[in-house]
Amino acid sequence: MGVYHSANDSSQRQLVPASTANVPARVMYLEPYDPPAAPAVSTSGLYEFWQLLLSRKWLILAFAALGVGLATLWSLRQTPIYLARISLEMQDGAGGNTVLGLREVNASDNSDAWVQTQVKILQSVSLRRRVLQKLRENGGKDPGPSSFASQSGAALATALPALTPRKDPGQAANAASMVTVLPPATSTIRTFGAARIMEIQVESPDPKFAAAFANTMAREYIDSNLEARWGAAQRTSDWLNKQLLDMRAKLEQSEAQLQNYSKNSGMVLANEQGQDNVAQDKLRQLQTELGRAEAERVAKQSIYEVATSAAVDTVPQVIDDGRLSGYQTKIAELKRELAEKSAALTAAHPTVIRLQAQLNEMEATLKRERDNVISRIRNDYDASVRREKMLAEAYRKQMAVVTDNSTKSIYYGILKREVETNRRLYEELLQKMKEVGIGSALPGSTVRILDPADVPMAPYKPNHISNMAIGLALGLILGCLVVFTSDQVNHSLKAPGEASYYLKLPELGVIPSNQAAARSAKIDEKNLMPLKEGANGAWSAGSDSVELVTWRDRPSVVAESYRSTLASILAAKGLKDRPRVILITSVDRGEGKSTTVSNLGIALAEINQRVLLLDADLRKPHLHKIFNLPNAWGLSNLLRERISLKDSPIEALVKPTDIENLYVLPSGPGTLSIANLLYSNRMAELIERLKDEFDTVIIDTPPMLYLSDARVLGRLAEGAILVLRAGKTTRDAALHAKQRLVDDGINVLGTVLNDWNPKDRNRYGYYRYNYSSDNT
Description:
Elements: E1 3-9, E2 12-18, E3 27-31, H1 45-55, H2 57-77, E4 82-90, E5 98-99, E6 102-103, H3 111-122, H4 125-137, H5 148-159, H6 169-177, E7 186-192, E8 195-204, H7 207-265, H8 269-272, H9 277-308, H10 316-320, H11 322-344, H12 350-435, H13 438-441, E9 447-451, H14 464-489, H15 498-503, E10 507-512, H16 514-520, E11 531-533, E12 539-541, H17 549-552, H18 557-571, E13 581-586, H19 593-606, E14 611-615, H20 623-626, H21 635-640, H22 650-653, E15 655-656, E16 662-665, H23 674-679, H24 681-693, E17 696-700, H25 709-714, E18 719-725, H26 731-743, E19 748-756, E20 767-771
Parallel strand pairs: 10-19, 13-17, 13-18, 14-16, 14-17, 18-19
Antiparallel strand pairs: 1-2, 3-20, 4-8, 4-9, 5-6, 7-8, 11-12, 15-16
């Protein structure tokens, strides 16, 4: 039974018989995936980028290893740094501790602002100088905690420098000459949100010095805080003393002014005691009556204005008048009765005339009553206006009396209040001065040490693991950038489908590289031919070269790829209508056109087709080397000699190979007139003769980049195939070659992507497929 393998071309499928010679039963082999003619650049940008990273993972890992190595080297060269910590509790520094009843000068109602102020004090240069001076005096060691007496002494020495004995200049010079060189140290202050806790962190290459610096800094901060408070208390006391002297002088002056004014103005004790309140009471009564009169006048004016308008019926006097209401009710009844009679009787009827007369009389009576009401309202309004004017005049006169009586007492009251104010301030200041003393004025510290700093046992920096992680991250990022940048600047055709997208040509096949195909063949390897390393270092499945892989290594991935390519060529029009003269060319050298020619010829011979491989590359022929044939005579001889092409036996024109049904016409010796030979009529006659003798003629031509041989021979062929090498052939070069073939009227069947590395398994994978010598 014949054995078949599947061939894909777009949406069509066709079974092509394959030769079973030398194929063992139950052999497992791989079928290459034939990618669709879809754009290679998918809309899924992240997916494409991920696949690109996977394809260059070793380069990215190399950058990552380099980053880790450099980070490790840098980290090992760093000086170890030790970190010492000491915790401080801030005991209500802004809570209102007072000195002599006055709020402290550095206190604040905002505790957060007060804590930030303390942080700045801890970071000040002056405090750092004190700490370094203290450490130098103790040889760089921790001086230990100071007692309360020493703290008070330091505060008193700062506040009262005259009481502190001065050092001899000679002693100061000797001390300066014996300054201890201290290790470097940096301090950081850390807060904890709303908590009144601060942490002093000191970094230094000397662990003992780091702990000593932290402890000394905390104690010096507490001492400086006490000194600042004591200085503030002393300044407050001095200020109070000065203010007391000034206040006593002001009090004496204000009392003298009050006595002089009493004598000169003739003020009596009665006025001082406020016995003239009768005039003021009368003024307040007039003011009250005037307010009432104004309110009454406004109310009556409002009623009067409403009454004089068209809305007289809304006036309360009209609404509350029973007679008016009766008139209105009677008028309504008469109107209703008149309307009923008028509907049934004529206007001249006595009943209608009587009703109309009664209605007119009643309306006239209502009008007179309304006029009387309006007249009464106007009289009430006029009376309220006159009363208001009289009260206003009386109020004005009484105001003049009260103003005249109180003018003399105004300045007297001012002087009296000034005396009282000065006396009260003087008494308060005198009381505070009596309470002033060193014991009561010096407040306690608002800072307490929670956890003193211990000598750190392990270095804080450098963090080797963190540095290595950063180096790894930077290496990965740099590697990804390099891969992405190189991919952007690389315009070569790299993956299946790209040629179809950019060239608008069918992709007839994809030939994987030998090494990639061997790595991709993850099946039962004991059923495959073993990999062998050729003389040039390339790997092939059981052969020394890939040019004959379809014949020698039939179950290999590369061989099946060539068979799949042939199936795509034959699938378009079928085996009978296929192109019989096929020209295979490439854009540049080294893209695998001769390899493609030999393997496609072998694949055709396997399906019992007589195939001739015509080596038309007269400059650098290669087919005779592939099939180990002499090249002393060949195509160039046939084109130059005058022998009859029609009458010559075919055995005299071509040479058979070791493969059944496969023949080769070598290029022959080189010549300088290649263009003349290819343009000659004998070339066309030779093609016609070969078509009569063979089922398929495959022409191997030179690359198209600089030579025109392929374009000349393409006019004699029924179809042309453009071989592209993955990662080498650029899109522009391939498009230029395709366009030149199309412009010459050559039927371009499609492209073959050669030497593709199928690392992108998720998108372009291989599938497994069993076949055997039977139908099972």
